[in-house]
Structures are given as structure tokens and as C-alpha cells.
Design goal:
- The protein is α/β, with parallel strands linked by helices and about 200 residues long.
- The chain has one domain (about 1-10, about 25-195): Collagenase (Catalytic Domain), CATH 3.40.390.
- It is about 30% helix and about 20% strand.
- The chain contains 6 helices and 6 strands.
- The chain has helices at about 10-15, 40-55, 120-130, 140-160, 175-180, 190, and strands spanning about 1-5, 25-35, 60-65, 75-85, 100-105, 110-120.
- It has a 6-stranded mixed sheet with strand order 1-5-6-4-2-3.
- Helix 2 runs parallel beside helix 4 (about 140-160) and helix 3 packs across helix 4.
- The chain binds zinc ion.
- The site of zinc ion has 6 residues, from helix 4.
Length: about 200
């Protein structure tokens, strides 16, 4: 196991339009969580991850782990477990800011399609960048932060890489401000890694 703090090359002339079919197999994201994820956070998580992976021309198929049937098949999948509480707190949070936001399992140097997102750490990072009225949208911003952390991990997985990008979602050590900013994208030079197969 390895700790990671932690997803097109668009061809605009042909594929850079919304509504055209994805070029690559959908990515099934199987979600499990220790505690229920607030619906507002879940909606934003799904919308933001869909947007980020579409930058690598990957369509996301969401599944709850509890809904997976034994023997169910998916061409390409990632399993993510959200640990801790993914509900934003309005009271001050007195937790240690240090430590990873997520990690992804590896074996023999290969990045495996199993990630764990540490909601308590993500929450501290996101909360530290919130001010004023943003707390009213706490769960929404939490969902956005969760999506960016997860997209970062998925990028490691699909690219089977321990490296990082220089800018954007694939960069090392995303800050709280980056996690909740109105917009944070994959750098174009990084997004191509999202199209690679995850099942090896
Ligand atoms: Zn990373």
C-alpha cells in the first residue's frame, strides 16, 4: 500500500463538442462509504467527477457497492471507499491538517483500481479555504472537493503512474482552495492518461 496525496487530449475539430459519444469504454466507479454521504454532496460529487473525466473522454457509470451483483462484469472499473464523515461541519474543525487526502493501493509497482478517500482530511482542507457564505454551501463544496480528490486518484490508476502533473487536478498536493474553487481542470497534457485501461 502506498500513500498518495492526492483525470483529453481533445481533438476539438472532431470530438470537442458536447453530446458526441465518448471514444473510450465507460469507467465504472463503484462507491462504498463508511457513513451516508449527504445527497447534496453526492450530487456535486457525481456532477464534478463526470465533468472532469469527460476531459479525458471517459463516461462515468456510477454503482453502489451494495448494488453490485456477484459475478457482475465491467470492462473497466475503479472501486472507491469514502472513509470517515463526508458531511461538512459548520462548527470549527479541530483536526490535524497534515496527512494524505486519499490513497490508492499498489502492488509490485502497479497502481491498483482501489482507492480510499479520507473524508475527514478532505473536510479539513476544504473547510480551511471556506469563508463567509460558503459555509452555507458546505456539503456542495465538500462534494466538489471529494470529486477532485477522487479524480486525482483515478488519474493515477488509469495512467498506472506514481508521477504527478505540473498543473491542475493531477498535480501533487491539492490545496483546500483548489479543492473548492469554482473550476479546477486537468491539464491537457495530463488528460490523455484517463483513457488508458484500468484492468490489467
Ligand atoms: Zn497523486
Amino acid at each position: 500500500m502506498r500513500f498518495l496525496l492526492l483525470p483529453c487530449l481533445l481533438i476539438p475539430s472532431l470530438w470537442g463538442f458536447e453530446g458526441l459519444p465518448a471514444l473510450h469504454a465507460p469507467l465504472t466507479v463503484v462507491v462504498d462509504s463508511e457513513k451516508p454521504i449527504p445527497s447534496t454532496a453526492l450530487q456535486e460529487l457525481q456532477a464534478e467527477l463526470d465533468k472532469l473525466l469527460s476531459q479525458g473522454q471517459r463516461h462515468v457509470e456510477w454503482k453502489l457497492r451494495s448494488q453490485m451483483q456477484p459475478g457482475a462484469e465491467a470492462a473497466d472499473l475503479v472501486v472507491v471507499r469514502f472513509r470517515g464523515s463526508c458531511r461538512m461541519e459548520t462548527a470549527p474543525i479541530l483536526l490535524d491538517e497534515r496527512g494524505p487526502l486519499a490513497f490508492t493501493h499498489t502492488a509490485d509497482g502497479e497502481v491498483l483500481p482501489f482507492s480510499e478517500v479520507l473524508c475527514d482530511q478532505v473536510k479539513v482542507a476544504a473547510r480551511s479555504a471556506m469563508h463567509g457564505g460558503q459555509l452555507r454551501d458546505g456539503d456542495k463544496l465538500m462534494g466538489r472537493a471529494m470529486a477532485r480528490v477522487l479524480a486525482h486518484e483515478i488519474w493515477h490508476i488509469t495512467g498506472n503512474t506514481h508521477n504527478h502533473g505540473k498543473h491542475g487536478v493531477a498535480s501533487r498536493g491539492l490545496t483546500g482552495a483548489q479543492l473548492i474553487a469554482d473550476r479546477l481542470d486537468f491539464d491537457r497534457s495530463d488528460a490523455g492518461a484517463l483513457t488508458r485501461k484500468t484492468v490489467r
